[in-house]
What does this fold into?
Amino acid sequence: MNLEVTSRYRQSHSLKSERQEYREKLFNPEDNEAVSPKKYGHKIKKNIREFKKQASKLEFYPLGSRENYPGNYDNYLQMTLSHIAQMKCLRFDHALEDKKIFKGVPDYTNGQNNGKKILLLDLDETLIHADFNGEFYNDKSIKYDAIIKFKENEKDFEENCGEYIEKRRMKLEKLEEEEKEYRVGIFLRRGAKQFLAEVSKYFEVGIFTASVKEYADAVIDYLDPDKNMIKFRLYRNNCINVNDKIYVKDLRIIKGVDLKDIILIDNSMYSFTAQLTNGILINSFYNDKNDIELYNVLGYLLNFLYKVDDVRLINEQFFNFQRITNDLGAN
Ligand SMILES: [Mg+2]
It folds into this structure.
């Protein structure tokens, strides 16, 4: 494995200042209080309604993953963080009162992670790209790494999939309508399987995807057929949905682990909105065979995060997501 750290990481690192100073500036203890699912009640429903109402007032249109391409890092960051600064008005703890968000979430209260940090990995455009739009379907010179099959879950269809599957249904070739089985070609990011093998030695690894369960499970089964690298799976229903445009991955849903010990790697900046300093942003992957981002991130994880007390302080020193957002919010 190539453990070289990219110049981007080195550059950001040169901006570091005292750790204690960061701690005082960045973390409002109230923001990081553990949240647990509560029973539905009048007040809770009211809070969730209020969250949706506030979200509907947001006036920006989120950038798509296509904008997160190599060479556009600074621009992508500036734009998405300016949107995230606008989302500061949202009370994500209110959105977490929807108990569906906690479905299937792991509980580490009894230390089942053996002191390992939790490493959450996004799926689409982070580890793989699925050709749902048929972009590469007719190009004979390009070969998929695998064909993934999955079945539609009728019960959850309306609730979870909605437009998502509906859009894709029209695009998918070779759809077997009667069996409700979907097939889609996927590209594996360079080094993805080695990356998983390596990080699973040092971290408690989970997938956290904004995709629906039926599809995501098929991809994860392909990535980890022996089910010994990926310890848990979180899906679209575990995300906070903001106006059906943005899926925020609020890390407070993981029980029994302090936020200082949780890392999320994702190609969408918006995923980090609730806890910016836990995130590592990776360029979006489509089918670039020369891409080496996973090797770079592996170097960063093992050299800088694996043994530290608080991953958020190191991430902030490297990436400055919180500082930039604060500056944008102040303007
Ligand atoms: Mg993604």
Observations:
- The radius of gyration is 20 Å.
